[in-house]
Structure formats: structure tokens, C-alpha cells
Amino acid sequence: MADELTPETPEEEQPKKKHKQRKNGLYPGVSDELAENMRTGWADTELHGLEPIPQAAHTAARRAALSARFPGERLVVPAGRLKTRSNDTEYPFRASTEYAYLTGDQTENGVLVLEPTGETGHSAAVYLLPRSNRENGEFWLSGQGELWVGRRHSLTEAEQLLGIPARDVRELAEALTEAEGPVRNVRGHDSVIESALTDKVTKERDEELRVYLSEARAVKDDFEIGELQKAVDSTVRGFEDVVKVLDKAEATSERYIEGTFFLRARVEGNDVGYGSICAAGPHACTLHWVRNDGDVRSGDLLLLDAGVETHSLYTADVTRTLPVNGAFTDIQRQIYDAVYASQEAGIAAVKPGAKFRDFHDASQHVLAEKLVEWGLLEGPVERVLELGLQRRWTLHGTGHMLGMDVHDCAAARTEAYVDGTLEPGMCLTVEPGLYFQADDLTVPEEYRGIGVRIEDDILVTEDGNRNLSAGLPRTSVDVEAWMARLKG
Ligand code: GLY
Ligand code: MN
Ligand code: MN
What we know:
alpha+beta, Creatine Amidinohydrolase, Chain A, domain 1, Creatine Amidinohydrolase, 5-stranded mixed sheet, globular, disordered N terminus, binds manganese (II) ion
């Protein structure tokens, strides 16, 4: 034991920083006496009688459906590993959507394995890092020791919380290497697991698993709908926060807006569900403006596209385009009201039995009409739509599925998604926009540099839809009144 803790590197050559020491697996300066001392004197903190997490019943049903789809095959779904940001610092960990969807767990290095029990059926096990061993010094000398990174759940605690048998993940890679029989893995999350399975899987079969898990998430259960509403409600409060500090943002930059929204996301949720787009003035015309380092000026519009992600990893995706000084100019209002009318038409087309494409077509029709009415395009409108001429200024699709991923269900087959039919429980964004680039010489000067998007999160219900983000105003006059109230 003492040998394991005795440094192999001479004292003067040993790295000075604690992180380096941990990463190198070197244990410098640990005397036998200290090692012995650290081994003992710790209370038993095992937790007993834990209640299952709220989603446990739902995750069991999801695993049962997955089992039925792939009988007789071993299914491996990793949470993922920490990713290096630079040197020895890592990005904040975010478990893979597939793993969190099937287990409710979010622990790094976790892996769900569904082991076939015969021609049909599976037994599930979740593989996790157990609590740190105090006997061998791991808990305070290893980089993954609980003294450094915080207490983990014991495997017994994890079983109670998740409702799934839990095993030591350190034994998994070898077990998978030796295992016989057909196996599929969700790729892209865990290189150790992928190496262990490299001779046993095929890209095509793994892709079928990924596609299944993407399509399975299209219809949300009651727990998921509740979480999406929570995400949206926090997002509404984040937008209110931003309106209240617009004067401070004017004195600094778009970053003040990003930071303000982020505070709400971190305090009430897990994180933002995607990089916040805080786009003032002409930046609103850059669809993925996440640099957020520009000026915020009175007289300009601010396009804020942001969403809080809940602790259970469901995200909102909401956009409002706000006049920084609280009042739209005539041309800003003209464009804003056109986008609003387009969004109204899109939302009205969201209902069970409608095609997914219908709301996009309805929104685009209104925008094409406006562009013809303003003399920016030559009609008739049907010709414009047939040739797609409006797209110079509408730029993107009108919406997408929303859930644990902001662009949820992205691996679904075209026939199940873009060419599919809406069903109760689906949640999607409706987010038309018009964007007139600052250097667009085909439009009158007054249009240039104006970008407007309005984005709401819409749940398909039995008899139509429900706007989860109705807590934020949408019409231009309601936006002005709301801003005036918040700015006091
Ligand atoms: N925030 C990304 C999107 O609206 O799709
Ligand atoms: Mn968005
Ligand atoms: Mn969106």
C-alpha cells in the first residue's frame, strides 16, 4: 500500500500544481503516516430509503419500448465523458440526451446496458463510478476522487434513485470486449466504450439505434411536458430580467444581456439549452450570432433567442425582438407586425393530424404576401413561393421539434419528422423571421440592418395546440406595454 502512494519522481521534479499531480497519477509527499491517517476517521454517510426520481416510471417505459424494438441484442447507451477545454480544464459536463432519456441519470462516464434475456426482453443495468475507496487513498489522491470532485451516489443509492441495478463502470469495457452476441452502441459519446466494441458493431446498425431513440422522443409524456413548461417559465423570467437591465446593456454590450439571461438559467435550471443569441442592431440578421460582443443602442432592435435548460435537461427555445428604447420605429413595426402575422398563421396550423410542413407553409405564405405588398418582390405570391424567392429574407425553416435537445429528434427519418404528421404530445417551435442584411442593395435603405424573429414553443394538444411561452407578449403594442411596465 505504501508503495502505491510513494512518489516515483524525485521531489524537485514533481509538478507543483495540485491538478498536475492528480492528472499524472503521482502522489508526491505522502508519508506512510499521512496515508494511514487519511484512511480512517470518516463517518458512514450511506443514504438509506431513497425515493426514486420523478422520471423513474417514465424511463422504465422508455426502456421497455427500446427492448421491444431490438429483441435479442445487447444495447449500449453511454452518458459521455468530460471533454477537455484546455490543458487540464474541462467543459461543464452534459450527459448525452439518449442516456438521460433512458435513465434519468446525468453522471459522467455512466453507461446504460440492456442485456438480452433471450429471444425477447432485456435486463437493464446502469454502470457508474462507485463511491471513492478510502482504503487505497483513491478518494483524496485520484483526480476523480470524491474529495476533489464531490460526493457521488453509491451504487446502492443509485439503484434506489433510478430504479435500475447499478454496477461498477470500471469493469464494463473489459466485459463488453469479451461479450458474445449482437450489440449496438450509441456512438459519439464514449471513446472507451467504442474501442471496446470496435469489432462488434457496424455503423449502420448503430445508426438504427440512434434513429430509434430520436423518433421515440417525438411525443412527450406528462413528465416531459411539465419540464418543458418549467423551462419556458424560467425563460420568461430570464427575458424579463433582460428588459430590466437594458440601460446597463447599452452602457456595456450584448454580453451584459447574455450574462443576465445566463444568471437566470444557472440559478433556476441546469444551464442554457444552447448558446444565447443576443443580437442588437444589424447582428439580428446573423442567424447564429453568439459572439454577443456588439453594442446595444437606443433606436435599434434587440433580437434575443435564448432558452433555459431544466435540471432534467429539457430546454426552452424562445425569441423576442425588442426595441431597445421601448418603442418601435415605423419601419421596425411594419416588419415586426408582418412577422407576427406570419407566426399567427403558423401557430394556427399546428394541430393533430396536420402535416409537420403545414405551419411552415402557412408562415411562409404570409411573409411572401408582405414582401410582394411592399414591392420587394414581384407577384403573384404563388410564383414567389414556387420559386422560393422570399427566402432571401426569410432564410430558415419555420420551426423544429423541441425537447431535451433544442433541435430535438434530429436523427429521425424524414418520413417520421419533416414529412410526418403532428400528434398530441409533440412540442415544436414556430419561429418565422425576416432579415434584411445591412449590405443588401436590393431593398430600400430603411430596411437594411433590421432583423426580426418571433419564436414560441407550441405543444400539440388533442384539440389544437397550447403556446407554452404565452407568458411573453407577442404583438408589437403588447411588447411595448410590457417593456414600459418592466422598466418602470
Ligand atoms: N435557437 C436556435 C433555434 O431557434 O433554432
Ligand atoms: Mn431559437
Ligand atoms: Mn428554434
